Amino acid sequence: MATTSIPRAAVARRSRNRQLNRIMLAYALVAPVVIWRVAIAVYPFLHTIVQSFTNESPMTFGPIKWVGLRNYGNMFQDPTVTESLAFTVIFTVASTILQIIYALGIASLLNSSFKARSIVRAVNLLPWAMPTIVVATAGQWLFNQQFGMFDDVWSRVFAGARPIWLANNDLARLAVILLDVWKNAPWAAIILLAGLQNIPSELYEAARVDGASAWRTFRSVILPLLMPTLLTLVIFVATYRILSFDIVYGLTQGGPGSSTSLLSYQVYKVAFSGLYYGYAAAIACFAFLIVLVISLVGYAFLRRSQNAF
Amino acid sequence: MGLRLEAAAAPHSVRSQRGAWRQRLGPIALYVLLAIFVVITFAPIYWIILSAVTPIDKLFQVPLNYFPSHFSLVNFQSVAGLVPLGTEFLNSAVISSASAVITVLVCLLAAYAFARLKFPGSNILFLGILLSGFLPAVSTIIPLFQMFQGAGLIDTKVGLIVLYVNLLLPTSVWFLAGFVRQVPYEMEEAAQVDGAGFWTILFTIVTPVLRPALATLFLIDLITAWDEFFTPLIFSRSDATTTLTLGITQAATDPVHQQVIWGFEAAMGLIAIAPVFILALVFQKQIVEGLMAGALKG
Predict the structure, then answer these.
(1) Interface of B with A in 197-236 (CB under 8 A)
(2) What predicted TM-score, i.e. pTM, was given to this entire model?
């Protein structure tokens, strides 16, 4: 007994050591990514929450004071913030809906068989590959009244009508949304294309044999199967919209007034032009809260649609 | 009797006629829609290219001139006189490629650990990294700015690379972990039996199988980093770190007339989009498949 138990214990110890080594190795391997994210994203985020309850600013000398919820209270009485909040909601809802619908159209086009498919797919990739700031800067000139291409086409279609796109609150908002859809729908289309290609082609065949119309096939066969992809995509598209910055910086600088000033742009202005760190932090935290709520609601829908099968 | 037969036959013939129409109409409608899509997508890009290679007085005519009838490089020459174009191009290239390389390397290590090695807390860490990707950049930017000020990293390439890598990490880890899981485990077991160590297995067995995925991830990260604007806007202060994306917003002002010249902006825009367009067109298949794979892992 004793003679056999000693080697067994040694083997167990050695395998336990190997197990421990593997765990240490695993921690060493994930350490760079984890440390990077904690130091450059999680810690600054927590610090932002703390800052949002203070009057911190690089302009004030002396100790930073706690102001409780005052920043948050001021936010809702500040017309520039409430206006930018309103536009952020409009922009997120309108751009997300338009983008998803347009992307569904592109994806079903790209999914059908035709000649020169790879050329069309390549064209679809171009807006995705471009820097948003280039798109936004070009947008200033596309919508230019008199020499803008978009404006020119518009006036040809609508018999000489030349609206002043970027000087009118509503039209400037529309311009931001249209340009955003143009830039980002191709990416959404690629994601939806992946979803479409995951649907077995026998299902299309079966629907066709049963004599279902194209619309009926889409609604009863494709849409339910595409739902998980679609909902995941909506979460991503909507949260990215809330945090959009480049498009407004390049196209309208938040104007006219602050009618197109998205929350991210507002934070940037308050923090780096106004130098009100505490106040900007509160607006930033509020932006995060909106992202959180949208993600949670989207996730709940996603779970429900996955449970439906 | 004959009447009734006719009545019964009529709907059928109408339907088959409509079916024939639809069959003929289908492809035509498809090509019309495709043409509309291509025009909508390409028109603004064409406008940028045309504006870049046309002198502004030849471009802005009434009615607008849509044809490249006055090809000239004058806009590029003027911009090159106003802006350190070469430096900015180099900054963009160095910062984005270094960020992409570092991201792919650290993500390969982490993805292997997450996909293959069981360790306490692995699920929570993996999910945490993923969810931390949802933290808005603006919700971290003020403390980051203060941290970087304290560390003397404002207006340095190293500082920008640290920030860019941070942006690329969450989706990249997620992407690669999915691919590591697909590598057949038997190969690694066989190597283990032969006495191969961990690093040997990772670099001689796993990495070669993953090469296409690593290349795709590098491309997507490279393009994403090249396009980044918000980070240099906050952290660049001089020519030493100004990227093309930032340069385009600063440079286009004509010092004589004190106004923004569209031709200059278009020329800079074309320089900024040319490299990513070439990458996107040459590696179209890999990028599309990569984006799709990233989506499906959800």
Answers:
(1) 198, 223, 226-230, 233-234
(2) 0.90
